[in-house]
Amino acid sequence: xxxxxxxxxxxxxxxxxxxxxxxxxxxxxxxxxxxxxxxxxxxxxxxxxxxxxxxxxxxxxxxxxxxxxxxxxxxxxxxxxxxxxxxxxxxxxxxxxxxxxxxxxxxxxxxxxxxxxxxxxxxxxxxxxxxxxxxxxxxxxxxxxxxxxxxxxxxxxxxxxxxxxxxxxxxxxxxxxxxxxxxxxxxxxxxxxxxxxxxxxxxxxxxxxxxxxxxxxxxxxxxxxxxxxxxxxxxxxxxxxxxxxxxxxxxxxxxxxxxxxxxxxxxxxxxxxxxxxxxxxxxxxxxxxxxxx
Length: 293
Description:
Elements: E1 4-13, E2 17-27, E3 32-36, H1 43-50, E4 64-67, E5 70-74, E6 77-78, H2 82-86, E7 89-92, H3 104-109, H4 118-123, H5 128-140, H6 156-169, E8 174-178, H7 186-203, E9 206-211, H8 214-220, E10 223-228, E11 231-237, H9 243-250, H10 271-274
Parallel strand pairs: 3-9, 3-10, 7-8, 8-9
Antiparallel strand pairs: 1-2, 1-4, 4-5, 5-6, 10-11
Helix pairs in contact: 5-6, 6-7
């Protein structure tokens, strides 16, 4: 069973602006996949559709999104069971989406709300085991020392790692990260991407991350899906995305996708190599969290 299946998905804003144009995509369990593209290419829109936060266009013929074998949306309508599926999807946004006045621990404990009675969540009553799970997740992403701090006191990179810890506490099977490093410095960006790769490789969590620079896709994601004007123009191995090939895909717009250190890499591969089917990386293992409270 595929982790994510997108079939003929189209999204139009206004009368004619297509943010997504007949997008089809399949992602297997345990993959770490990058979505790349220049600004306005449709990366964030696609992630929001997979998460069931936005409805696609209503078109003739089947179009929709399935996650973990269940429908998220079908022919422009959010499916009745989408809420249950969302419990298994952790979404990490560019702007962190933490409650700044709350402690880091409280923000991470939000991840258990889908599994406990609503009255306990409203009153902030969490069990010892739930707190232990949150502390272990914070330790896992390297910010356990911040547990009692207000979220507003964290750096941008620390806030993103807190968001990843929240997804771990949620016990997500899929993590969707929408431009998680767009506003971070290089050192923080590296740490966030390493954390995402760790939970992917060690826990087998499927990770889909949208990125503005292809360098991070090249380093951390075996497979890359490239979007342009709402369409998939490449789906294959990340190591095929040399500057020359990116220029072929994006023209002058490719300059904003490449960081300085890769601008003088070897020439692009042959067309046959570039469009080869992506390798399937399916890491094994379960999250092991043990920390005393």
